[in-house]
Amino acid sequence: MERREFLKAAGAVGTASLMQPQLVFGGVQQAAAFFRLHPFVAAHPEAVFIKLTQVSAKTATAEKLHAGRQLASELFVPSDSEGYSSQSKIAIKPNLTCLNGDFSTDRMGILTDADFVEGFVESMKDELGLQGSQFYLREGNLLGDAYCPRNEALDWYGPMAQRLGAHLTDFDSGRLLADALLANLEEGSEVIWREVPNGVIFQRIGYVAPINAPDAFNINIAKFKTHGMGVTLTSKNWQGTNVHPYVHYCEGLAQLTRGKPASFVADVHGDFSDTVTTLHAQHKEASVPRWDRPGSDWNSGWGMEGWAQKTLDNLSASNIDLAMIEGIYGRDGNWMDGPHGGASLDFMTNVVIFGRDPLKVDLIGHWLAGHEPGNFGLFHAAVTRGLSDTVNPHAVPVYAWEKGQPARADLSTFARTPLMTYYLRRDYAGQNEPHWHMVDEPYEYPVATAVRDEAQATPQSHVLSQNYPNPFNATTLIEYRLPHADHARIEIFNARGQLVEVLKDGWHEGGAHVVGWESGRRATGTYFYRFSTSAFQESRKMVLVR
Fold first, then answer.
1. From CA 492, how far away is CA 331, in angstroms rounded?
2. Would strands 463-464 and 475-482 be described as parallel, antiparallel, or unpaired?
3. Among candidates 434, 48, 373, which has minimal Cα distance to 231?
4. What DSSP designation does 497 have?
5. Is the dihedral of CA 226, 384, 394, 315 positive or negative?
C-alpha cells in the first residue's frame, strides 16, 4: 500500500505582520532545544482555565488570528534544558467534521475555527522556532463513500495548511485505509497502534499518524457545539483521531463488528455487549439521569453507555498533552438542524476553555453551555472506571486566564450560553420533552464526592514554590497555595530588605494561585518574595539578570 499523500506547501504566512505578543517569561523568540507548557498549567492537570476572547464576529479573520496567536504565545515557553523536544511532531486534532455541499459562513460553526488554529500555529512557529512541517492537522472521519464523497472543510483548512507549510490529511484521495490491508500496516507509517488498558469495548485502537506517536505533542482543539451526545467537546472530538473502522463511534453496538474486517474484530472484546449491559444496569441503579431511555440503538440509555465506554477506551489509550474547546462562537442544534425555525444558530460566546484533563475540560464546557454535567452519563462512567474523580463542575479548580496568568475564580462568575441539544430526549414513560432541549434539570451531587474532590484539589498546608524561571530576565511567576480561604499577601523586597512591590494583598480561595512579577527597569541582582497569611509566613530568594 502506498503511503498517503499529504497537502504540504511552504509559503509566506500572510498574517505575520499582526501583533507580535511577548512571551510571559520574556521575549525569547529564537529556536531552543525544548519547549514547555506554561509551568502552572503543566503542574496542575486537575485545573481548567477559561480565557475570554474579544472577537466581534465569526467572520472577523484578523481578530480570530490574533486570539489564537495570543493564547499560544502565553501557553508555550522555549527552554534550553527540559521539556518537549523542539523536533517533536505537533499533532493537532481540530473538529473537521465532514461537510456535504458548498462551504459557507453558515457551516463555519460546525468546525473548529481555522483562523484561530492558524494563529495558534503561527505563534508556536514564531515563538518556539518550530517549522511548519512539524505540524499535522488530523481527522479520521473518512471520505470516498456515499456519505461523504468530499469534505468542504478543506475549502477553509486547505489554504490555511498551505500558508503554514503544515501537513493536512488529504481527504480527497479516498479512504485512509483499505480494510483488507488494515492488519498489515506498520506502526508509525499510516497508523499508530495503542493498547487499551482495561478496555471495555476495544483491546487495541489504531490512530491516524502521528497522533499518539512517541515523538508527538498532541493537541485536542474541539468546537463549542451540541450534538446527540450532548455538548460534543474534547472527549468526542478525540474519537476523530481513530482510523476506519475504529472511528465509527455513533453507530449502534449491534453494528460494531458486523461486516468489519477480521483484524478489527480481533481488537474488540468478545464479551463487550455483556459488559456494557452490566455497566448500564449498574448506572441505572445509581440513578444516572436519562439512562432509563429504552431501546438498543445509540440514542438509548444502553446505547449511550456503549458510546461512553468506547469514548473512555479512546481516552485511556491516548496521551493528550493539551485539551481545548474553541468557543469564539458556539452552535446549538445538530449540524445545520436546530431549534430556530428548523435551523441551528451560532452565538458569539467568546470563550476558550483548556487544561490537561479532557474530562474536566468537558465538565466545565457542559456547564458553560447551560447544562448540568451531573446529568450526563459519560462523566459517571468515567468515575466508575477511575478515569475521573468527579462529575461536579464546582469541584474542579477553575482559573480565569488573563494576559498569560491564571487567577483562581468561582465558576459562577462566568457567563453561560444555553446551547440546545437532542441528547436522550425524555419522550417515554409519559414524558413529553421537546426534541431540542436543555439538560439543565437540577442534579444533587453527592456530598461525600464533593468533599473528597475539594480535598484533592486543595493542599493540606501552605506552600510557597520557587519562582519560575529563576534566574529570570524580565518576568517571573510565583506559585503559592493555601489550605483554606484566607487573606494572603505577596511582597517583593530588594537585597537591602526594602519593600519593592506588593503583588497581591486580599482575600483568596483555598487552593493553588500564581502571580507574575514584571521587573520593569529594576537593577540586576538578588530579590526576595514573601508569602504571608494570618497564620503563615515564608520567603524565598530569586535572581534578576539583565
1. 46
2. antiparallel
3. 373
4. S
5. negative
Grid coordinates representing 282 are: 449498574
Question: Tell me, what's the pLDDT at 110?
Answer: 87
Q: Is the dihedral of CA 406, 412, 414, 416 positive or negative?
A: positive
- Residues 429-468: pLDDT tens digits? 999 999 999 999 999 998 754 444 444 555 678 999 999 8
The burial class, CB within 10 Å (0-12 / 13-18 / 19+), for 186 is exposed
pLDDT of residue 150: 64
Q: Which amino acid is at 115?
A: D
pTM above 0.90, yes or no: no
| Closest by Cα among 407, 411, 335, 399 to 370 | 411
Task: Measure the CA–CA gap between 314 and 537, rounded to whole angstroms.
Answer: 45
Query: What's the rounded Cα separation, in Å, for the pair 168 and 174?
Result: 14
Cell numbers of 409, please?
Answer: 475564580
The Cα-based distances of 411 to 13, 24, 449, 456 in angstroms read 38, 25, 18, 18
Query: Which domains, ranges and CATH numbers included, belong to the chain?
Result: 6-454 (no CATH), 458-544 (2.60.40.1930)
- pLDDT the model gives residue 155: 80
Cell of 368: 458553560
Question: Could you give the CA distance from residue 514 to residue 265 in angstroms, rounded to a whole number?
Answer: 49
Interatomic CA distance for residues 50 and 401, integer angstroms: 6
Integer Cα distance of 221 and 228 in angstroms: 19
- Point out the residues of the chain with pLDDT beneath 70: 1-30, 100-102, 142-151, 170-189, 448-459
Q: Which long-range contacts (CB under 8 A, 24 or more apart) does 426-431 make?
A: 426/290, 426/293, 428/293, 428/294, 429/292
Instruction: Report whether 284 contacts 291 (CB < 8 A).
Output: yes
pLDDT at position 107, please? 79
Q: What is the Cα–Cα distance from 102 to 440, expressed in whole angstroms?
A: 35
Q: Do 207 and 241 form a contact (C-beta atoms < 8 A)? A: yes
Cβ neighbors of 385 (< 8 A, separation 6 or more) are 198, 200, 312, 316
SS3 category, 203: coil
Distance CA 231, CA 228 (A): 8
Q: Which residue has the cell 474542579?
A: 396
Q: Which residue has the cell 507548557?
A: 37
Q: Helix, strand, coil shares of the chain as percentages rounded to 5? A: 25, 25, 45
CA atoms in the 13 A half-sphere facing the CB of 257: 14
Helix (H) or strand (E) holding 90: strand 89-94
Residue with the three cell numbers 414513560: 429
Angle at 111 between CA 373 and CA 302, to 5 degrees: 40
**Helices (DSSP H) in 165-261: which residue ranges?**
234-237
Rounded CA-CA distance 512/40 in Å is 9
Task: For residue range 51-85, list pLDDT tens digits in order.
Answer: 999 999 999 999 999 999 999 999 998 988 889 99
